[in-house]
Amino acid sequence: MATDATATNAYEELTERYERISNIEGAAGILNWDQEVMMPEGGTPARSAQLSALSATSHELLTEEAMGEALDAAESADLDEREAAAVREIRRQYERATRVPTELVEEISKTTSEALPVWKEAKAEDDFSTFAPVLEDLIDRKREYAEHIDPDRPAYEVLFEDYEPYLGLDTAEQILERLREELVPLIDAVGESDIELARPFEGSFDADTQEELTRDALDILGYDWERGRLDTAPHPFSMGTTFDARVTTRYDEEDVLGALTSTIHEFGHATYTQGLPDEEYGTPLGENRNLSVHESQSRLWENHVGRSEPFWSLFVPRVRERFPQLDGVTAREAYEAANRVYDDNLIRVEADELTYHMHIVLRFEIERELIEGDLDVAEVPQVWNDRMDEYLGVRPETDAEGCLQDIHWSHGTFGYFPTYSLGSVLAAQLYASAEDDIDDLDGHIEQGEFDPLHDWLTTNVHRHGKRYTTPDLIEEATGEAFTADYFLDHVTEKYGALYDL
Asked: Is position 157 within any domain?
């Protein structure tokens, strides 16, 4: 058996190598943030080259022979449970990366960087044909990437594991199928209800004042401004490290709720990132578990906190203060408005808690068919519109509000979309456990006391980083295996009460 000193040296050498890679990827993340938020429009050629170089360097460091030797030495050492988990995660990344040529990694990075402004232009001009050649190129490259990793499995299954490595695509399929089966009748029942929920937020709302209101929300929820910032982007997102976790949103002067809910959503991502252990920065133990867990944090804060009646009892006075024209709005009216089910909503990021998942099913099906070669890129607008009509009863009039509305395919992130529904389901399971453990959680929220919830999430989710696989983390946090039961119970009870079902 290795001595303690030998084990320490082997683990330290491995994590020192990994930290260099982590820092390079962090720098690339900042460049990506800059490209989406504030880079001059003409900066794409240089930014593309910069990101491509960083991707290649990171890949070369991860796949070099010395990294393999460091992994072998660490795996032979006498490690504690946390160290062994970090080594497990590095080994997994190493095994996948060594199968992919550096040149392909570089090409994918360059192509995605160049695709972003093309997507923006195509969306602005409502012209899918502009984006189609880029999308086709990205699909070809991601198929090649998946083929290198595992030629014996469907490409989409391999790609999905970049975002959720442990639950399995079969689990995602089962969850999505169950949501489709059980949510559609509920959505239909809501549509047939005679109840008309309040709509107090109609009118015009100045974007600058909306920003002040979203900053109020971040203040109340406990965002650490010393380690973050708020900006605008065409598609809201969050990125960063425990020391620098940024959020973005967007403002529509006819929709004050849209910016607020999207900001709270991104806050959930950022507070997870800020809750990771500082001392493990640069190791897998200081990184988020995966995108399913990440999404559980954003959906928990957006839906279980930000759309709750206790939150609106707390926050309505701020809304009235910022927008005097809303002086007569009650907490109950705001709560109803935040939870109204829209039967004509075309936009995923503006969707309510129920119809949202039909958006995910649609995207999941289309991108899987694209990757597996069962759908041509040229067919996407028509298929998208047909399925939107089938699943949600609405039909986009433009590609901008249809197949061009999401940024993800310009990033080459095929396999990402299922994690949105997986995260929503997990959010309900985690929140139910938090309610069991925290006395009068609703009362704390109504009083603006968010430390108990922050502490519970940090203790049970954030501080673990990648120590546990997804199923093990869920078991540790909730005492149960992953299940959709809590989510379906939550929406059935909530919308049953709202719509008198």
From this structure: no
Give the active site residue among 266, 295, 302, 333: 266
Cβ partners under 8 Å of residue 138, min gap 6: 108, 111, 112, 115, 409, 410, 412, 414
Same domain, 313 and 460: yes
Same domain, 374 and 273: yes
pLDDT of residue 1: 44
Shared-domain flag, residues 98 and 189: no
pLDDT at position 349, please? 87
The four Cα atoms 340, 430, 179, 331 give a dihedral, to 10 degrees, of -10
CB 276 within 8 A of CB 463: yes
CA distance 159 to 464: 25
Residue finishing a domain among 113, 134, 157: 113
pLDDT, position 3: 53
Please name the residues in contact with 233: beta carbons below 8 A apart, sequence gap of 6 or more.
36, 37, 248, 249, 250
Residue-number span of the structural domain to which 412 is assigned = 169-493
pLDDT beneath 50: ranges in the chain = 1
Largest CA distance in the chain: 73
How far, in Å, CA of 34 to CA of 248, rounded?
11
- Is this prediction's pTM over 0.90? yes
The residues facing 245 across adjacent strands are 240
Return the pLDDT at 5: 61
* Of 202, 194, 187, 443, residue with least CA distance to 310: 443
| Catalytic residue check, 65 | no
Query: Which DSSP symbol is given to 341?
Result: P
Please report, for residues 299, 342, 456, 493, 495, the alpha-carbon distance to residue 489 in angstroms, rounded to integers and kept in the order given. Answer: 16, 20, 22, 6, 10
pLDDT number for residue 8: 77
